[in-house]
Write a structure and sequence with these properties.
287 residues; 27% helix; globular; Metallo-beta-lactamase, Chain A; 7-stranded mixed β-sheet; single chain; binds zinc ion; 10 helices
Amino acid sequence: MLVNRIQPKDLSSPESKERFLANLPPDLGNLIGGNTTCLEVRSEKGDLIIIDGGTGLRMLSKKLHYDKKQGIHVHFFITHFHWDHLQGIPFCDLFFNPNNRVTFYSNNPNLQEILANQMVEPYFPIRMSVFPAKLEYVILKNEPVKINDVVISYREVSHPGGCISYRFEEYGKAFIFSTDTELQTSDFIPTKGNHSFYGGVNVLVMDTQYTLNEFISKENWGHTSFSKAVEFALEYNIPHLYLFHHEPNYSDEQLESLRQIATWYSEKFHNKSIKISVSREGERIYL
Ligand SMILES: [Zn+2]
Ligand SMILES: [Zn+2]
């Protein structure tokens, strides 16, 4: 169906491709995806890092290729414990293989207890302790973690109940994942701490759930407007911004139009051009 609609002119530029996708009828246009937060990060050496266990974790665990007899070591970083970041954990195949080893990381000292408590009756029929995989828990204490050559650091961001954003760096390339973040004025101040965390970053995946209007009426709800995220990326010279944590009520077309407005805002108001993308399920980003 989709292939029959494509004309050569639709493939002529990144803009024409975006236009083609944005103009698809709703039954063909749900290409951005509606699963909740879960990312797979791979190091150069193939280490497997997963960030958050939202509903996307179920499909990710089914699609992973690895030797089931040998098992795999999963480094599982949690940003915070809201439902949309945990709901895939009970349905994740990785936990049902006794040869797998899963190391969870969080700055919350009650990490193990919090994860276990979301799998008790009446919420779920089996407990987390039933998972045959070897589960380990690491409490982050302000020091970066190293997995082979990947250095992972984190910082607390403004969000109800707390949340952390992660910075992954390997061989001079860096990526920041900052979901469920309400950017504060203090995040824009060029302190040493801000520059060491946000500086020298190639790709920023940032919570941009709101428009500016929505942000004004939803102050302190813990999310950022896309215009503020653009200003933030410009402030730290980050060349590629991914809009993330989409408003669940928005269609693919609305998200694409937000991307276009964000690009326009960057170019017209700040006279600077950066790449802005809408995060899509299954998309691969190479650093
Ligand atoms: Zn949240
Ligand atoms: Zn969330």
